[in-house]
Specification:
By secondary structure, the protein is of the alpha/beta class. The protein has one domain. Helix content is 35%, strand content 20%. A six-stranded mixed β-sheet has the order 3-2-4-1-5-6, with helices on both faces. β2, α2 and β3 form a beta-alpha-beta unit. The chain starts with 5 loop residues before the first strand and ends in a 7-residue tail after the last helix. The relative contact order is 0.21. Pathway: Lipid metabolism. This is 1-acyl-sn-glycerol-3-phosphate acyltransferase. InterPro entries: Plipid/glycerol_acylTrfase. One of its GO terms (molecular function) is acyltransferase activity.
C-alpha cells in the first residue's frame, strides 16, 4: 500500500457487475477506504447518505469545470484519498481505455495503483504503484504489462487496444478528454 494513502486505483479489467461487489469486499479486507465518482444527482435524497457512506464523491457534469479538475481539487483537500476508476468506462465491450484516470493522477501528482479481479486465478488485489511521468504511451506499457496475465470475468469485453489510446492522447490536447 503506497504511503501516503493518496492514489488512483485502476479498477481493471471491468467487464461485470460482480467486479464492483468483489472489489468492495476486497478493499474492506485490505483496509482501503476506496472512493468513486458519481454524478451529483445520485447524492440527493434518498440515496445521498448511502452513496457517501459507500465512498462516493459527487461530480458536477453540468458546467465547464471538468471532472479531472474536480478530482484534483478533491485530492488537494484530503490527506487520505484512494480514488477508484474503471478506465473502460463501462462493463460492455470496449476498444480502448478512457484516459481520465491517468489525467487525474498526473495533475494531482499521485501514483496509479493497479487493482485487479483475476477470474482465471480467482484472486484480487492491488499491484504496483506507478507514478505517471506525462509520457502516456510509456506509462501504459508498464500498466499493461501488469494486466497482461489478468483474466476478466468476460474476456470478450476487455479492452485490448490500449496502445491506440496513447496515439489519441498524443494527437489531441489533454483538455479534450475533460
Amino acid at each position: 500500500m503506497p504511503e501516503p494513502r493518496r492514489f488512483v486505483i485502476i479498477a481493471a479489467p471491468h467487464t461485470s457487475n460482480w467486479d464492483f461487489l468483489y472489489f468492495l469486499g476486497l478493499t474492506t479486507d485490505l483496509g482501503v477506504k476506496a472512493h468513486f465518482m458519481a454524478k451529483t444527482s445520485l447524492f440527493r435524497w434518498p440515496l445521498g447518505r448511502f452513496m457517501r457512506d459507500m465512498g462516493g464523491v459527487p461530480v458536477e457534469r453540468s458546467y465547464n469545470r471538468g471532472q479531472v479538475q474536480q478530482m484534483v481539487e478533491e485530492f488537494s483537500r484530503r490527506d487520505e484519498f484512494m480514488l477508484t476508476i474503471a478506465p473502460e468506462g463501462t462493463r460492455g465491450s470496449v476498444r480502448q481505455w478512457r484516459t481520465g484516470f491517468y489525467q487525474i493522477a498526473l495533475a494531482a501528482r499521485v501514483p496509479l495503483v493497479c487493482g485487479l479481479m483475476d477470474y482465471g486465478r480467482k484472486v484480487g488485489g492491488l499491484g504496483p504503484a506507478i507514478m505517471p511521468t506525462g509520457d502516456y504511451a510509456e506509462d501504459m506499457k508498464k500498466i499493461m504489462e501488469y494486466y497482461s496475465s489478468v483474466t476478466p470475468r468476460h474476456p470478450e469485453r476487455a479492452g485490448n487496444e490500449i496502445i491506440e489510446a496513447s496515439q489519441i492522447w498524443d494527437s489531441q490536447s489533454k483538455d479534450s478528454y475533460l
